[in-house]
Amino acid sequence: ETGRAGRDGRLSHCHLLFDSTTFYKIRSLSHSDGIDEYAMSKFLNQIFSSGNTMGCICSFPKESTSRKFDIKEEVLLTVLTQLEIGEEQYLHLLPQFSVTCTLYFHKTSPQLLADKDILLRSILNKSEMKDGSYVFEVPRVANDMRITMNEVFDRLQKLKFSGELSYELKDPAYCYMILKRPDDLNALSANLTKWLSEVENSKIRKLDAMFALAYYAVKGCKKTDGCSGSEHTPCIQKRIIDYFSKKEGTPDDDYCTPLRKSSTFLQSDIKVFLQSNSFAKFTPRAVARIMHGISSPAFPAATWAKNHFWGRYMEVDFPVVIEAAKAELVKFVGKGE
């Protein structure tokens, strides 16, 4: 981590703390934002579902959608943003709102109020009765009235101040309007998955380069170019300059990491893990995250960190664990388990 010393122009010193265990942990966490193409495809199908009409307000609750697809909320937003500002503009993102509203009437009966107020008439028509209260989805009413969700809330606020009703909001959601439907949803899914993978791989390469620099300063420096004792400014500066002078994507054998590319017991441990947790629906990435000790929306640390295999294979390269999980899941499903 970098500090702020030296910004005033005076002499400052940076202390580099080297610990390979921390490196393994940070590198594992770099895989927490990844999405498999299968999950991406299902998510896009929800975004562009036939019930979502072009030009109308669409929404999906952040928390439940995140758990459903095992994708972090901020990654869901990243995908939506790319669909808005990418090469093709498929969506127009709207402000985030809590979209489920529960109405409580206090004075005039709902029907009498609805006779005088067209908005309340729409709300009553699109509400469900729960425990004597009216529950409705704000986007449905806004679309019915051809107004914005802000206008719905403004009208409800006026009725609240008059003492006629009160309301509660829940289910914070991402809201958007569809401007264009993809010609090929599978191709779009593949492209978005590839793009996110490239972002992830870029973060990994930078982290590996930092580890290699730290490892060289601590373990490999011959102290022939001005370094002495714990002072390694010359060799660190040289390697930083070398790093930035290389073309992006150029492989460098010096930037290697101590991650293992295989493990004797990985395959058998995944098999045991799947058998002992047959109640859960895993993807290869979900299994790999658990083996690396990475929390995710569908498999949070609060529950899964108690598992015997949590974080056991943090020192094995993440893609290797995914491939092993994929092979075992194929066998597992093939047996009908």
Automatic annotation (TrEMBL):
GO terms for biological process: double-strand break repair via homologous recombination. GO terms for molecular function: 3'-5' DNA helicase activity; four-way junction helicase activity. One of its GO terms (cellular component) is chromosome. This is Helicase C-terminal domain-containing protein. It comes from the Eukaryota.
